[in-house]
Design brief:
The chain is an alpha+beta fold and 218 residues long. The chain is built from five helices and twelve strands. The protein has an eight-stranded antiparallel beta sheet with strand order 5-2-3-4-12-11-10-7. Strands 1-6 form a two-stranded antiparallel sheet. Helix 1 packs antiparallel against helix 2, helix 3 runs antiparallel to helix 4 and helix 3 packs across helix 5. The relative contact order is 0.20. It holds the Pfam family DUF8010.
């Protein structure tokens, strides 16, 4: 088993650390790290079904980084574990090697694999519209969920708000906006391309990708 991955430079390490900090605000449970072919793909969960009766869409964030050691692995680990290792790196090292935790964590969403090919462009959406949708939806969630509310109530409210169609895009859940904004994928004003492949949708702003599968996985 590969025990480390090698990033291109210290800037990439800092970029990954920033991304993980944003991930931990949304869901501090797990990230999926997939390395191969010189690329490290870092998946995170924004929303996913929890329980048999939960019809929430699966919404994942994805950032990719150059991986220079040729490592190959597919691991599911706590984001805090990688953040801590990044924080401990020697800043003077140009290509820092990052050790992986000894064991993985379990999570339902990590077994759902988005397609790697077959994507067809279906349109685009303004980053400004995504920002506004994310802001309004986050405000609605905050107003509907009092402090010290149980996890099930929070999940139900988040699912209701982020499952709604994005204004003008009946097939795209609003959670795609929340994911893009909360994970730091939106930079300035841009037209964010939209793609589809089978049961999956993808939005690809400048700094990352949001992958969406509606309903429960088969």
């Amino acid at each position: 088993m590969t025990n480390t991955f090698l990033l291109q430079d210290a800037h990439a390490a800092a970029d990954l650390r920033t991304y993980l900090a944003r991930v931990r605000v949304v869901d501090d449970t797990a990230v999926r790290l997939v390395a191969g072919g010189g690329v490290l793909a870092v998946y995170s969960a924004v929303l996913y079904p929890r329980g048999l009766l939960d019809s929430s869409p699966t919404i994942l964030g994805l950032r990719t980084f150059a991986e220079t050691s040729g490592a190959g692995f597919d691991r599911v680990v706590p984001p805090a574990a990688i953040s801590d290792r990044l924080a401990a790196l020697d800043a003077s090292v140009d290509s820092p090697a990052v050790p992986l935790p000894d064991s993985d964590v379990r999570t339902s969403w990590s077994g759902i694999a988005p397609p790697r090919g077959g994507w067809e462009r279906t349109g685009s959406v303004s980053s400004v519209a995504l920002e506004l949708t994310a802001r309004d939806g986050a405000g609605e969630v905050a107003r509907a969920v009092p402090e010290n509310t149980g996890d099930l109530r929070v999940q139900r409210v988040r699912s209701e708000v982020w499952s709604r169609p994005l204004d003008g895009y009946p097939e795209v859940p609003s959670g795609i906006a929340f994911a893009a904004a909360s994970l730091g994928f939106l930079v300035g004003e841009e037209e964010v391309p939209l793609y589809s492949s089978g049961q999956w949708l993808r939005a690809s702003p400048v700094r990352g990708h949001v992958l969406v599968r509606t309903g429960r996985a088969a």
